[in-house]
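Input structure tokens:
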């Protein structure tokens, strides 16, 4: 789809009859799509949503457990696929927005946490009831959720197996905005439009610098990525257009980085 002439991808988790449970094929598809998004220079944003309105995703498809997750050797391959998918989502260079309606549980919660921003309806619920199943979290998914809510809150979710509501998720930082059910599409579209109307250089830099700061506290302003982003922004046309638009009291029209 396009927003103001800019390309936006919408990923729909499409098993509403099973609350959009994620089987192994789904994790592979998520990784494949994220890899394609990373190479698409015309892409400006990605929205991930669940179909049916009752769930973003209820997590792993437990019907697969006997064949895919029982036995350490078999489970290793499954867990690597989940980690690869989540890492691929986090590595998409443009903003990835999770639009959550209903349940975001287990792998669904982890997928939402791998996105950059999460918008949720008031009836949404979040949790990772791993201890109720006897499974463990890998480092990739642990880091994704822990970055959003902190280690102590993640431990509470894991120890208790509880599902928290959207207001609690907002207080913890798992969700950035809670809206009424009928308004979530409009709010998501407004955020996407803001991204598309902003400077592509600045938006990509905002994501990459923030991720770098969280992942590598020892990074300095001389980091290779930071230097490259600095030069792209300050030597490119967007800054000049932004200053001119501010001076002339008009909306900026950014073109840098578009194919």
């Amino acid at each position: 789809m396009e927003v103001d002439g800019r390309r936006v991808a919408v990923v729909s988790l499409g098993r509403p009859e099973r609350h959009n449970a994620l089987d192994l094929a789904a994790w592979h598809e998520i990784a494949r799509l994220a890899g394609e998004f990373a190479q698409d220079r015309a892409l400006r944003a990605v929205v991930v949503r669940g179909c049916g309105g009752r769930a973003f995703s209820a997590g792993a498809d437990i019907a697969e457990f006997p064949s895919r997750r029982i036995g350490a050797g078999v489970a290793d391959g499954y867990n690597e696929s989940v980690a690869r998918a989540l890492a691929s989502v986090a590595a998409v260079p443009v903003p990835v927005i999770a639009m959550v309606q209903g349940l975001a549980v287990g792998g669904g919660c982890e997928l939402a946490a791998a996105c950059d921003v999460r918008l949720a309806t008031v009836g949404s619920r979040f949790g990772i009831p791993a201890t109720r199943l006897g499974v463990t979290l890998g480092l990739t998914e642990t880091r994704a959720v822990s970055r959003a809510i902190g280690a102590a809150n993640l431990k509470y979710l894991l120890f208790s197996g509880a599902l928290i509501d959207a207001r609690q998720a907002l207080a913890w930082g798992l969700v950035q905005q809670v809206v009424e059910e009928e308004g979530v599409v409009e709010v998501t579209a407004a955020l996407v439009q803001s991204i598309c109307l902003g400077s592509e250089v600045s938006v990509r830099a905002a994501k990459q610098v923030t991720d770098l700061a969280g992942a590598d506290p020892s990074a300095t302003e001389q980091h290779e990525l930071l230097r490259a982003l600095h030069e792209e922004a300050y030597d490119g046309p967007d800054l000049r257009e932004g200053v001119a638009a501010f001076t002339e009291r008009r909306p900026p029209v950014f073109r840098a980085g578009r194919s």
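The first strand starts at residue 2 and ends at 3. The radius of gyration is 19 Å.
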